[in-house]
Structure formats: structure tokens, C-alpha cells
Amino acid sequence: MASSTQKPHHHNLPTPYATTAAPPPTPSTSTDTRPTPTLDALSHLLHRLPPTLSLSLPTRRSSTPPLISLTDPTPPLLSAATQLGYFHLTHHHPIPGPSTESAAVSLFNLPQDQKQLIFPNNWPFGYDDDDVSAGNESFCLDPNELSGLDSGSDSGCLYEFGREMERIGLKVVEELGRAVGFENPARDEMCSQLWISDTDGMDRPGRVYPYVVGLHCQLRGCGKYSLWADSGWVNVSGRVDSVLVTLGDIAQVWSNGKFKKVRGRPVPMSLEDDNKLSSRYITMSLLITLPLESTVSPLLPGPAINNGIDEQENDEESHDISTNLMITGEERQFRSFSFEDYAWRVYHEHLLLKDPLIRYRV
Prior knowledge:
single chain; about 350 residues; alpha+beta; Jelly Rolls; four-stranded mixed sheet; IPNS-like_sf
């Protein structure tokens, strides 16, 4: 399994901040109450609106993801992927629970200087203390490097957890590719990241990183998760006996826009015992993603052809995922792009509400 341990180029990209729109002009204090043509037209329009129309902000909807087992002869992956972009995965092999959670908690209990020493920040891996003041901190770890970790915690539990989640995630990618009809990339063209976060459950998913599929271990006590899907914010009921699977932006590109996606990682919302926002909750997610040197393109079924990418633009040693591009007669919905540039942008610019794939749509 390839691992994206290569040190990335250090970009100096400014972080854009949205400008604040000017407030509407203050109504005049004049006592002149004579009607004007503009006011008459507005009044006429408001009176013609149906009485059931609500001008309030839309409420966040709730969703119950389908239960899917890969042991079924024909698991309904295609409908879940094209309609929602997330589902509960059941009947998988047991995943370590309490011991793994305890090992994760012990990481956050380490002194601050030890966290930074043992897990140096080498984007995207390492300890991220950017959101400590806001109640969020996280570790991004390479599961394949946890076996020899000596951090005062039971790294063996985290290693086994990461490897088991990785195995399940790769199987999900294979099944998704088979369901939608694209040729699945080789396993050595993908890598994984284990994200362990300590969150306050206030709709802050922390850092965002591109991925194919995300597997989120649903630990005891969390009743609901909040996630940002293509349809907007969604509240999803949790199931401690399953894995919550989310499809990411890379899966959407590979499917040529057929798959819905989820941006970032789900955020725990409440505890089942008191139904209140959690003051501290550990989340554990594994992302199946790509090496930094990859190129991302739609993967379409059919006879292989030259995808028209200028070979001089790509390094000869790069894992060009786009070489699997096929032709079927359907139009491409996305153009090819560098995964490293894209990953750097969404990670450092905290892109979530604005779809970062918009600039790559054809």
C-alpha cells in the first residue's frame, strides 16, 4: 500500500476571507408617507405570495442512512451513492472498540510539548493544534507507521484499528467502482489517513482533506452526527454497531459526477444519555485518499484511450490516476487537476461551505 509520506512543497498561499456585504440602507426618517411606485409594486408582490410560503431560513433536515452489508449478493451501493453520498455499513468484521478509544484518549492527555514532539506537524500528518482555543484538536496519522510508535499509549490498538478500517475502506472503493461501472484504481495507487479528533460537538469538523471514502467509527454515546452533504447540512442518526461511510470529493470526480459527496468528516452532535451537546467527544475516522503526486480525473467505463493530458505537464514518476480514463460517449463533468494543489487548498483555506470542485467542472 502506498503511503503519502513524501514531504510536500511549501506553498505560500494566502487564506482568503469572504468580504462582508454592506448593510441595507437605513429607512428614511421622513414623515412623508405618500406611496411610491416601487412600494406599490412591492406591496402588490407580497400580497400575491401564497399564505403557506415561509420566509424563514431552512431548517437542517434529518436523515436515516440505509444499512448496507457487503456480504449481500447485490448491496444497494449505487442508490446510496447517487442519492445521498453516505450510508451505514454493517456485518463487517469486529473493529476494536473500548481499548482503541482509550488509546486515542491517552493521546490527547499527553502534555502539549510531547504531542508536538512525538507527532510533528508535517502536512497533512502530525498533531494539529490550530483549533485548540476553539475546542478542537486532532491527530492525522499514517496507520502503517503506528506499529512502532512509542507515545506512552497503546499504539498497537490504534495500529490494528487503522489496518482493519483500511481493509474495509478499500473493499468499499472496489464495490463502488463495480456498482457505477468505472475501472477501480489499483490499491497501491491509494493511501489512508487515520484522523483522531477531540471535538466539542459544535458543528466544527476541523481540517478538511480530500478523500475517496471516509469510514467513521461510531463510538458509544453519540446519538447523532452532523455532516455537510451536497444537499446541505444533514443530521444523521448514529449506530454503534456499524461504520458510517461517507463518499468524498475524489469519489465524485471518479464517478464523473454521479456520486453525491460529503465534505469533511461528520461531527458528533449529542450524547444519548442526556441529549445535550457533548463538551468533549473523541472521533476516529479513516480516509482512503491519494498520494500527493496523483492526478485526478473522471474514470469512465469503456475501452481505454489516451485521455489527452499533456504528458510533459506530469512528472514521469507520478501516479497518474487519470490514465484509467475511459470513453463511453458521456461527456466529462470534470477536468483533470493536481491532487497536491487541490489538497493544499482545501486543507489550508478551510473550504467547506463553498464547493471546492466548482472550479474544475467542465
